[in-house]
Amino acid sequence: MTMRTTAASLLALALATGGSAAGAQTLEYWVYSDFAQGEALALQQEFIKEFQEAHPGVTVNIVGKGDDDLTAGQIAGAASGNLPDVFMNAVGVGAQLVDVGALANIHDKWMAMPEEFRAQFNKGAVDNCAPRPEEMYCIPYTGYGTLLFRNLTVLEAAGIDTSAPPADWADWLAQMEKVKAAGKFAIPDQALVFNSIAEMYGVTGDVSTWGIDWESKTTRIDPAVMTSVLEKFVAMQPLTSGPSRNDQATKDLFVTNQLAFHTIGPWVNPTYVEAAENSGLKYDFVLMPGETADKHGGIKNFEIVGVAPGENLDLAFEFATYITAKEQMARWAKLLSRYNSNAAAMAEADVAALPLVARSVEAVEATMDVSPPYLIQPVPACYQSTVVDYVSATADGEFTPEEGAEEMIAELNDCLAG
Amino acid sequence: MRVLRHHLPHFLMIAPFLVLFGAFFLYPILSGLYYSFHDWNGVREPVYVGLENYTRLLGSRDFSRAMWNLFQYIAITVPLGLTVAFCLALLVDSFTGRWANFFRNAYFLPVVLPAFLAATIWRWIYAPNFGLLNMMLGWVGAEPVSFLNDTDTMLYALIAVDVWVSAGFNMVIILAGLKNIPADLYEAARLDGASKLQQVIHITLPMLAPVLFFVLTYAVISAMQVFDTPWLLTGSSFSEYGGRRGALLFPVMDMMGRAFGGVQFGLASAYGFLLTIAIIAVTALLFAVRTWSNRR
Amino acid sequence: MTSAAAARISVWTVLKWATAIAIAVITIFPIWWMINVVFSLPGEPVAINPRLWPTSLSAGLEKIEMIFTQTGYLRAYGISLAYALLTILGVLFIGSLAAFEFALFDFPAKGPIFGIVMLSLMVPTAVTIIPTYLLTSNLGWLNSLQGLVVPGLASAFGLFMLVQFMRAIPKDMIEAARLDGAGHFQIYWHVALPLCRNALVTLAILTFMQTWGNYMWPLIVTTSPEMYTVGQVVGMFNAPLSHQTVDVVMTANLLAAVPPLLFFLIFQRKIVEGIAMSGTKG
Question: Which residue intervals define the domain ABC transmembrane type-1 in the entry (chain C) (predicted)?
Answer without folding.
Answer: 77-267
